[in-house]
Write a structure and sequence with these properties.
- Two copies of one chain form a homodimer.
- Chain A has 427 residues and is an alpha/beta fold.
- Chain A contains 14 helices and ten strands.
- Chain A has helices at 18-30, 50-66, 80-89, 113-123, 140-163, 176-184, 204-212, 217-234, 239-252, 268-282, 304-309, 348-365, 380-400, 411-422, and strands at 3-5, 69-73, 103-107, 128-133, 166-170, 187-190, 257-262, 290-295, 314-322, 370-376.
- In chain A, the strands form two sheets. Chain A has a five-stranded mixed sheet with strand order 1-10-9-7-8, sandwiched between helices. In chain A, strands 3-2-4-5-6 form a five-stranded parallel sheet, with helices on both faces.
């Protein structure tokens, strides 16, 4: 479902290390490497909990029936994946467009009081539900937001009513949120022990909000499943392995920044998800490709100059979608003052594709190796496959660079300082 | 109005080149350097056209009175500045929040048919106006969008009605859009000859959409004016010069990526504006600091790991706002399962500030020099000052690195290829 085009890197004569890649795949698949207690996502598309999956679908139906809005409370991996898939398969304008599924708002991913207070205004007096997502239940950002929204729900619907509207995605047995959920009788879903936050979009963490938006999560899982089978069958020849090898090769050649470029604004949050996945998995021990993203063609009139002609430390990966949902054609104009009649009758998809090809060629000329991934838009299977593709390639790429792709020790540094400054007991 | 805190770089013993900085300032202010025909923005806050400024304010009032939505058509510098200021001073949720000014949509900055078609749905049958912004009137992206919206306006209101709702910001005398505007009788505003797109937010390019959103553009200009006076009085000791010197010093030390970090989601598009300003001004001739941005604290759970512990090629600039518009306090909870009662009664601004200080200290420990800029939120003067601060520092920094900060030759490469692929006459 994902076509990998490496012709845009040939000019740079890459010599990817297939032996190292094979070793990394083996390490990942057999669970023999660093962080191997967090590789549950590898087999997840085959071996997920079918009973919980059905409960997710039922909970989504319940929320759709009784709520005009869903507030998803979570930070990092607990919101990026869901938001990414909803924006890509529905729209970045999802909330503003007419539909028969609830508006979906993401909260508890920062500490801006202004953002939170605006969210309360936007929800207004509409019926809403909350999906709080936290392994521990004590992470500062989501815990603050959950206190506020829980209080609001209890005021609005009473304790019994609120219970019907709070869905907790958390540890299966332990932690503050699990304890509270058991005590209050909230329906709970599981953040698996062996799947880290940034690899969790295909667990309940991502699937409940995604299902609420009316996206077919069966198809999403099926796509991931197919991609997994293909990767395991093809090994180092698979698209995911090729992508991993290539980016590591270019990294060693000094291409220390990877730009992920898409030609649809709907992809923006998938790029944010990708940045967490790769940045947090690979950026450690003083190494790692710096992940950045651009939204094209808009950013050709912003970062385009740098990509074309700035410091030569860039490699680029393009995600391009076939088959647009809607076609808009360029109108003809008698006077043709803008000189655009040569495009009259052309669809914007057609022009967008030519822009992509033109940009690809220009960047290659400028010394930037360009890899292109093509897939279908508005196709849940393809998006499920893309998620698994990026996850698998990330694990392989991380092992190839010699790091543990499944920990994030650096995230603790600011937390410790913050707890100390805030006077948290024990710090 | 902008407080610059360099204490977070002292550990790295920077030795900025004051002589080179002074030379760069002189070159910029006296207009003796490369690209000196595009330095009109330097004196703009003092010497702008007052009569046109009054016409901008009158046009904004007219649009506010007869339109529920304004469609701003432009790409690159023709939309980033306006969108940035509106999101920062109003809100990234501006369109979704209750208000008595029109919704503002940005179009013609890409080639996605899906995005355009969704915009048509969102406007629906509401009354709207268009501000088309293009020096030439022939840039592909905005020209396509303008054909579509002009056709729509003429269908809806007739030729005479449409004339009252189309505002063209374009060249003062020449070009396809100027010709059309004259012929059709549209009100026009000027993209000055001596101000490039990325430095144009304080001309009609940015000011008309900004004024439509109900922002006091007099105060915005006054802030830029004050900042200009201060910089010219203080020279190399000014905050802008210090920032320019410092980032060039660290660049030479191998800190090739600058991360702009803010702790308010409302800042996101200011960071996009900054990326264009710096990336396009400095990224050429094989050199330039790569500009990236993060939204904190959310991205501490995404790019945070990399910043703390990845490849050591980063320098960081923080923009932090004092005085939040609204205060939200952490509620108390009897059971305190989440352990958050130590924060009960605290405002989120208080916690956000501690998070900033904690993160700053963690990143310095991790080997990242951190510069902090502080200013007031919801203060037009401060935002005007910030704009001028970044523009001036960019010009100085660009000259210090030996490039022409006012051209963008690399942007033509993809265009030439694209016109060829699309069969444009003459290519």
């Amino acid at each position: 479902m994902i076509k990998l085009d490496l012709t845009g890197t040939q000019k740079f004569a890459p010599a990817p290390d297939a032996a190292a890649c094979k070793a990394a795949i083996d390490t990942l698949v057999h669970g023999t490497g660093a962080g191997n207690d967090f590789t549950g996502w590898v087999d997840l598309p085959e071996h997920y909990d079918r009973a919980e999956f059905a409960r997710i679908q039922a909970a989504a139906k319940k929320i759709q029936a009784n709520s005009k809005a869903l507030v998803v409370i979570g930070i990092g991996g607990s919101y990026l994946g869901a938001r990414a898939v909803i924006e890509l398969l529905k729209s970045p304008n999802y909330n503003a467009l007419p539909k028969n599924t609830p508006d979906i708002y993401f909260a508890g991913n920062g500490i801006s009081g202004e953002a939170l207070s605006e969210l309360l205004t936007m929800i207004g007096d509409r019926d809403f539900s909350v999906n709080v997502i936290s392994k521990s239940g004590t992470t500062t950002e989501p815990a603050i937001a959950f206190r506020i929204f829980r209080e609001l729900l209890e005021k609005k619907y009473g304790k019994d009513g609120a219970r019907e509207r709070i869905f907790a995605t958390t540890d299966k047995a332990r932690g503050a949120l699990k304890t509270l959920a058991t005590q209050e009788g909230y329906e709970t879903f599981v953040v698996p022990d062996n799947v880290g936050g940034r690899y969790s979009v295909l667990t309940a963490v991502g699937l409940l909000p995604i299902a609420c938006a009316g996206i077919d999560i069966d198809r999403l899982m099926r796509g991931a499943q197919e991609e997994r089978r293909q990767i395991l069958a093809e090994g180092v020849s698979s698209a995911a392995a090729q992508y991993a090898m290539q980016r590591q090769y270019f990294y060693k050649q000094g291409k220390k920044v990877e730009i992920l470029a898409a030609y649809e604004p709907a992809f923006r949050f998938m790029a944010e998800w990708w940045k967490q996945l790769y940045g947090e998995s690979e950026g450690k021990d003083g190494v790692g490709i710096f992940p950045a993203s651009v939204d094209l063609t808009p950013d050709l009139h912003s970062m385009g100059q740098y990509i074309q002609d700035g410091e030569r430390m860039l490699q680029e990966t393009v995600v391009f979608f076939d088959h647009a949902r809607t076609e808009v054609r360029v109108p003809s104009d008698e006077e043709n003052l803008d000189g655009l009649n040569y495009l009259a009758g052309r669809t914007m998809s057609y022009i967008n594709e030519k822009a992509m090809q033109a940009t690809r060629a220009a960047h290659i000329d400028g010394g930037v190796p360009v890899t292109v991934l093509r897939l279908e838009k508005d196709n849940e299977e393809a998006v499920g496959a893309l998620i698994y593709f990026f996850e698998f390639a990330c694990g392989v790429s991380g092992y190839m660079s010699g790091v543990n792709p499944f920990n994030q020790p650096g995230v603790e540094a600011y937390k410790k300082n913050m707890f100390h400054l805030l006077g948290k007991p024990g710090y």
